[in-house]
Amino acid sequence: MEQLKSLIAAERREIADLLDGLTAEQWDAPSLCAGWRVREVAAHMSMGFRYSLPQVVGHLVRARGSLHRMTDRLARADAAAAAPGQLAGWLREHAEHPWTPPVGGLAGALGHDVVHGMDITVALGLDRRVPEERVRVLLGQVSYRGAKFFGADLSGVRLCADDLDWSFGSGTPVTGSGQDLLLFAFGRKVPAGRLVPEPGGRR
């Protein structure tokens, strides 16, 4: 548990540092999250730290029970109201915040940070390698049920990492780096040429 907390804190600080170095054009560039720019993703990453449970419940009620609608509204509102430095600062200031998503515990929190970080870096073409220890933790959490929740269909394929000893599933081999396979399992459309053969993008 303490190790996971350290990995989460390190990931948040590193993403905050990366955000501090982005240009105005990069902040407004599309991310891998459909409909969100980099700034909306950054705002969403710190949402769990900044809203109390009663506030979340209130926003969820106003969104008629739709978690997706609620998070979309809050990300857009926060991204519009906060300057880039503030968005990065929120992530850094809450690096050790104990927030976890509704399911998944600390591993889920790490996945939230790592994958949303890649939503930014991959979309911008930045060559950031997520530290292997973090990738391994998250690959160990990959499941058919979890992938389905994120809109990914892993049936009929065997994910095979070419940079570490890991595979998942059965069927047609799909090969790529561990972090690219992680993106795929989290329902993201992986850029062309990074998975072989290309399985088709999921969102």
TrEMBL record:
It holds the Pfam family MDMPI_N. InterPro entries: DinB/YfiT-like, Maleyloyr_isom, MDMPI_metal-binding. GO terms for molecular function: isomerase activity; metal ion binding. Gene3D superfamilies: dinb family like domain (1.20.120.450). Keywords: Isomerase. It comes from the Bacteria. Residues 9-96 form the Mycothiol-dependent maleylpyruvate isomerase metal-binding domain. NCBIfam families: maleylpyruvate isomerase family mycothiol-dependent enzyme. This is Maleylpyruvate isomerase family mycothiol-dependent enzyme.
